[in-house]
Every structure is written in C-alpha cells, then in structure tokens.
Structure to design on (624 residues):
C-alpha cells in the first residue's frame, strides 16, 4: 500500500493537500468522473460515513434508545460516569491484556512462519503452506469460535485430553478458570487472524533483494546479524501495515459474544472485554444507554490510535 | 609467486537468492529441521480444522472414546445426515448466506472497480478530496458502532431484510476502492489512450481495455468481501430478528449455544462438526479456486 505504511498521518496530509488544491482544479471530465465514482461514493456516504459522524454526536449525549425523544447533549458527563464505573475499568484492563497477547502471538509467530515459508524453494510446496496458513482466516467467525470451544472443552476436547495425559486429571479445571479466559480468547483470535499477516510478511520478504544476504554473509555476518540488520529493518513498513490494519482489536467484541453467547460473559464475567461491555450497555442493559456506550467506543478508539501512533514513531525512529 | 594458487580459499558454495536469515536452518541436515519447525507451526493452524473434519466423520463409538483419535478409522456420513435433519432451517440459513454473500460481493466489486478507475484515470474537480476523505475515515474511531447503523437501518426500513444486509456490506468500500485505484494506476496508460484515439468513449475504454487488465485485483477485492460477508456475525445478529432470514453464522451459534430454546437440543458434537464443515465449505471452495489470483494480485496490487 503506497500510502498506508505512514498510516493516518500521511493520509491526513494528503487530504489537506487535496483540500488546498480544490480551488485550482479544473472541472475536466467531471460528468464521466462522477458517473464512475458516484455510485460507490453515495453508498459509502450513507452506510459508512454517516454512522461514523453520527456516532461522534451520540457520544456527547445522554441518548437512551428506549426513552422516546430523549437525547440531550451532555458534554463530557459520559466520561465522568466512565471514571467511576468499576466494570468499565475492569473490562478495559482485560482488553489491554487481550490486545497484548494477541499482538505478541501474531507478530512473533506470523514472522517465524513467514520467514520459514520464504525459505522453501519449490513454488508448489510454498503455495501449499501459504494456503494452510490462510485457512483460519477464511473460516466464518462463528465456526472458528465454536470449533475452538469444542477443541478446548474440558470434557472431551483434544487439549484437555492432552493436558490430562501430561499433567494428570486436575489440570483440565484450568480450562474453566477465570484467569484463563482472556488468554484463550486472544489465542483464538490470533489464530484466526495470523494468516493474513503471514501473507503480508511474505510479500515483504519476497521483495527483499537476495544479494543483500549474499553480501552480508561474505562480510561474515551470521544468521542473527542478517536477521536483525537486513530482514527486520526491511520489514518495518510491513509491520506498520499489520499494525494499522489491526487497529480495531482493542475494541473487539465478537470473539467473546460467540464463545460464551450473548447473555453469558464467561466464568466470573472474565470474558467481558470492553467491546462486549459497550455492546451490553447498548443492546442488553436497562434503557439502552447509547450515549454512554458510544462514549466508551470513542475512548477505546482514541486509545488504540494513541498506542499505534506511539508504536509507529518507535518503528520509524528505529529505522534510521 | 608459486604459492598464489594454493593459498586462495576454496570456492564459496553457491548461495541461492533465497538463502536468507535462516539459511543455517535449511542447510542443517538438508533442510529437514527447518521443515519440521515449519510443519510444527503449521500444525497450530491446522489442528482444530483436522480435528473438526475427523470428528464429523466419526461414528458415535469413536466420538466418545476415552482418548479421541486424531483421524477417523471408519468414516461415516451419518453425522451429516443427522445435522441436515436436526438443524432446523439449515437449508434456509445456507440459502440466505449465499444470497447475501454473492449479492454483496458482486455489487462491491463492480462499484469498487468503477470508482477505482474514476479515481485513477479521470481528472475532475474534487477527485483527490473525495478519495482521501474515504481513506481518512478508515482511521476515525467508530464511536457509533452498531448503534448508529441500527438507527440508520431502521430509518431506511432495511432491518430484517437481506437486501439491507447486501447494501450495508457492500458499502465498506474504502479499502476495495484503494486497491482498485492502485491497480489502475499501475497499468500503462498507453492502451487506454490508443483506445480513446480510435474512437472509444470513456466507458468503452474502461470496459474493453482497462477492466480486463485489472481482473487480478478484482479477484482480491471479491475474495476479501466473500470471506468477510460469509463469516460476518455481529452486524447480522443485530439487524436480523426474523428467524427466516438468519444467515448460517448466527443460525448455528443460536442453536449450538442454546441461546434460543425454540431450536431444540442439538448436542452431539459429531453432528455439530458436520455442520461446521458444511458451513465453511462454500468459502473454502471459493478460496481454493481463487487463491492463485489472490496471492499474485496481492503481490501486484499491494506493493509497498
């Protein structure tokens, strides 16, 4: 992606340039142009752009869906409520943990798998491996989560049988423990998403000039030196793309909603990630406090933007 | 002088371009250890899938063995028959999923291709502003989430409608338009100029000359959308209350999680596994049929 390694910042500056150039632009082939882009733009504006803008408005109001004609603007009151909401902080903490595990698994494993696949010489064999690593990505979310639910079931799931065989029967209780919930959900989500990262990393790896490695090894660089001095620096743009594409992970709700069902938040509520909590506030609890839920979503979105901005800076400074 | 030839180091082994950072692993015992490591890692991707396929083919006795086997010895299709019979509405859910997925995929690919061409090849006022506004909205937090969409869909009367789902899903156009624009930007303009000089109008130049050269990227867009819509869960769950209009994803989750009592009991995990296999097969078939274009298109279209 030509523009997106630099992510939001580059897009924003390109957007600002487009705004300033607008006055100078000629009408050109405007009729043909609008006929080509019009249908897509109209559909996008209605179903995509409008809900985004509308959401920002809702976040600053005390909108309760079940109370008719009631959506007063309330400034930052939703954030004051959030500060005192214990469930919010607990869920937010779980989501941070979830995201950390998700990224650690995704970056490290996807990287190793991609490097190992890039070593395979036969194009057919490499193709088979690429397809295998991409299979979890194509599975429907509900199938993936329900399959893992069976796979991890303490009664007759494989993992339980394996653990019992290795460590004795007591161990399978661990699968029901509240502390295991977030790591399990994060592992499943990482499993499902990893294939696309493998593919992106492979595109990056295949485009690295092999002569670089040759020159390095002639100069006496070992595999570790080659990894840290050539492979990783040259893959930094790919890492940034992966990071940008996964920006929604912090607010993710689907995994928990499928794994435990809509009404059950897991043992001791440990499956209540922040995205799920916002969903519950918006669609299940009391008179459906949409304003509060939207404020939570906005907080999560801004936090994840902040974190990716920070990481982006770190990655870029490491490159020079 | 005479020693010159003897002191030269032996010729270096020829290195292939791909002997990269982990070359040591491949060389080690003729690549066996690197392959074993790779296979071990790939097992993590495959194990749940193999297990599900194996379970779906097992007999009742095999399913409840104390130590479940990884593969099945006496394959049976009884689980599939049972799943189709007992999972009430399976055929209906399947049909709904197919309608929504095909509809959204076709509509989005057409719209993204047209728009990508317009943004890449035509000069008109506001072109870049519109394009970069679309891209920039990717980065704005979705504060409204499902709520704003719920409101909008109710207002338009598109809740509980497969057509509504198709429209909403195909509207996620920012990334597809980006991919198609990129792909048209990478094509040489000469062909198109020749067509225009020879008397084609813009649409003919697009339809007969440029679009056929961008099929790789179109496949990428179509595959992404097919996978996304076929597997979608939360949006569909929120927009559809009418059981007749459930897609496979929510239909199965409702039944297996016992969310709704009206579905009855459906507990045998062999037949659940059979249902999983059937629910995944269309997207798996589509992926396997198009993956050749997919990897190539991704490498050409997403060069960064």
């Amino acid at each position: 992606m030509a523009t997106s390694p630099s992510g939001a910042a580059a897009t924003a500056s390109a957007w600002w340039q487009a705004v300033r150039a607008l006055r100078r632009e000629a009408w050109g082939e405007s009729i043909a142009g609008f006929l080509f882009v019009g249908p897509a733009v109209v559909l996008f504006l209605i179903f995509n752009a409008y809900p985004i803008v509308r959401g920002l408005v809702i976040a600053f109001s005390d909108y309760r869906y079940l109370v008719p004609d009631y959506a007063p603007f309330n400034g930052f009151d939703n954030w004051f409520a959030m500060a005192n909401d214990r469930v919010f902080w607990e869920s937010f903490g779980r989501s941070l943990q979830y995201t950390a595990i998700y990224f650690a698994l995704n970056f490290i494993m996807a990287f190793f798998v991609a490097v190992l696949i890039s070593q395979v010489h036969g194009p057919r064999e490499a193709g088979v491996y690429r397809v295998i690593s991409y299979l979890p990505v194509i599975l429907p979310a509900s199938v993936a989560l329900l399959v893992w639910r069976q796979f991890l079931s303490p009664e007759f799931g494989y993992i339980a049988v394996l653990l019992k065989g290795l460590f004795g029967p007591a161990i399978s209780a661990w699968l029901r423990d509240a502390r295991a919930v977030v790591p399990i959900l994060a592992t499943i989500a990482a499993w499902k998403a990893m294939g696309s990262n493998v593919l992106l990393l492979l595109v990056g790896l295949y485009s690295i000039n092999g002569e670089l490695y040759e020159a390095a090894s002639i100069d006496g660089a070992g595999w570790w030196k080659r990894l840290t001095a050539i492979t990783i620096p040259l893959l930094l743009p790919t890492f940034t793309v992966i990071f940008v594409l996964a920006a929604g992970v912090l607010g993710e709700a689907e995994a928990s909603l499928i794994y435990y069902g809509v009404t059950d938040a897991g043992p001791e509520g440990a499956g209540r990630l922040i995205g799920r909590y916002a969903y519950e506030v918006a669609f299940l609890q009391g008179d459906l406090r949409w304003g509060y839920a939207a404020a939570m979503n906005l907080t999560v979105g801004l936090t994840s933007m902040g974190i990716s901005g920070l990481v982006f800076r770190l990655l870029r400074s490491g490159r020079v | 002088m005479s020693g010159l030839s003897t002191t030269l180091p032996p010729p270096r082994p020829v290195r292939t371009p791909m002997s990269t950072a982990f070359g040591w692993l491949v060389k080690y015992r003729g690549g066996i250890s690197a392959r074993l490591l790779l296979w071990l890692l790939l097992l993590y991707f495959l194990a749940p899938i193999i297990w599900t396929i194996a379970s779906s083919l097992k007999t009742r006795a095999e399913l409840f063995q104390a130590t479940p086997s990884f593969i099945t010895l006496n394959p049976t299709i009884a689980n599939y028959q049972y799943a189709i019979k007992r999972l009430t509405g399976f055929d209906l859910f399947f049909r709904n999923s197919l309608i929504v997925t095909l509809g959204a995929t076709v509509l989005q690919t057409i719209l993204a291709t047209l728009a990508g061409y317009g943004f890449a090849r035509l000069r008109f006022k506001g072109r870049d502003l519109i394009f970069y506004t679309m891209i920039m909205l990717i980065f704005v937090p979705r504060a409204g989430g499902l709520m704003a969409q719920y409101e909008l869909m109710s207002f338009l009367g598109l809740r509980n409608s497969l057509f509504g789902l198709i429209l909403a899903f195909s509207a996620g156009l920012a990334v597809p338009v980006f991919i198609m624009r990129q792909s048209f930007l990478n094509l040489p303009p000469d062909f198109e100029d020749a067509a225009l000089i020879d008397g084609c109008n813009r649409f003919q130049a697009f339809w007969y000359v440029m679009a056929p050269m961008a099929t790789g990227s179109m496949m990428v867009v179509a595959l992404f959308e097919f996978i996304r819509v076929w597997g979608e869960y939360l949006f569909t769950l929120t927009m559809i209350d009418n059981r007749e209009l459930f897609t496979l994803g929510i239909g199965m989750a409702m039944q297996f999680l016992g969310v709704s009592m009206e579905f009855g009991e459906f507990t045998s995990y062999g037949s659940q596994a059979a249902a999983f296999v059937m629910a995944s097969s269309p997207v798996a078939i589509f992926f396997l049929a198009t993956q050749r274009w997919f990897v190539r298109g991704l490498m050409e279209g997403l060069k960064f």
